[in-house]
Design a protein that fits this description.
- This protein is of the alpha+beta class.
- It folds into two domains: about 140 residues, Fructose-1,6-Bisphosphatase, Chain A, domain 1 (2-Layer Sandwich); about 110 residues, D-Maltodextrin-Binding Protein, domain 2 (3-Layer(aba) Sandwich), CATH 3.40.190.
- The strands form two sheets. It has an eight-stranded mixed β-sheet, with helices on both faces.
- The radius of gyration is 18 Å and the shape is globular.
- The N and C termini lie far apart (about 45 Å).
Length: about 260
Amino acid sequence: MSTQSALLKVMSDAARKAARGLNRDFGELAELQVAKKAPADFVSAADIKAEQTIFEMLAKARPGYGFLGEERGLVEGTDKTHTWVVDPLDGTTNFLHAIPHFAINIALQREGAVVAAVTFNPVTNELFWAEKGKGAFVNDHRLRVAARGRLEEAVLATGIPFLGHGQHATFLKELHQVSQRVAGVRRFGAASLDLAWVAAGRFDGFWERDLKSWDLAAGLLLVTEAGGRVTTADGGDDILETGSICAGNLELQPLVLERLRAAK
């Protein structure tokens, strides 16, 4: 089954429409790089515009659903059981530097559980999507997490806490414990794509702390629907509340958790 439900189609259409604006802005940004003045204002305007596009399309298709977005925060709906969780531009720093690795993320929570997810990279035109109980896909191909079972063969992704954000000392200890046991560690700068790539078997695992729910909501469903395992970086299940995550296949994910515990 790689035919999208009506719900997934609504989400995909919203992501693709927002992407058209982001692609145009990204093209302009590449030109702006020669200017001395950092185009940060330009990027935040692109971000807000993309979220507005998504908000309008989702509100029209599913009136009454709540909306939690990076830009506008929580907008309560009349339907208290459903909330959209949206990051209109994950990988802002990449976008700002004209690095073509960023994504639009739309997830739907039903009574607190993520039941549908879309992560779209407009540059590669890869649309990752999943619905609870129905598997995960990229465009029309089924996704499975990688089958590797040994840390020595694994390539993991992570995020490095940046200035004034997160626990740098904790991260360095964890990196030390993990990096000496694995084939490689990558830091690409968009958590949602890291998770989508775990679902696609490109990365064997991913861990990070101090993320927001809109960074994680879509990706955790993608990984679980692709046959993977997702917990917090401490092994718990309150991922969206803590903003910490450790994802991988069923064999490797517990081994990565062991390394993270060893860093304490």
